[in-house]
Amino acid sequence: MVGGVVGGTGKVVDFDFSNVRIKFQPPAPPYPALAKIARIQGTVIVEITIGPDGVPTQATALEGPVQLRATAQNFAMKWRFEPAMLNGVAQYARFKLNMPFRLK
Predict the structure, then answer these.
(1) Which architecture, in CATH terms, is 3-25+32-101?
(2) 30 CB-near residues (< 8 Å, 6+ apart)
């Protein structure tokens, strides 16, 4: 696991999303209107950093259609997770989440 620092508050540990437990996943957001009109689809990869309490502190879209990124980041900030534990201690954690956007 690789780490970084969050605003001087502590070390951030990289986790694989499969090792992070979801506490609350909000309903899918409305499709962005301009992206819908332009028929833009795709998957946005969002890097989420959570605090020791499992609440997101940051969400950054790394890849995916530009027109979908803000919606994906805002959606990611509404999720809640179980604290990411390392050696029995809750950590600041960072992981990537794939968010697919598909028109029906």
Answers:
(1) 2-Layer Sandwich (3.30)
(2) none
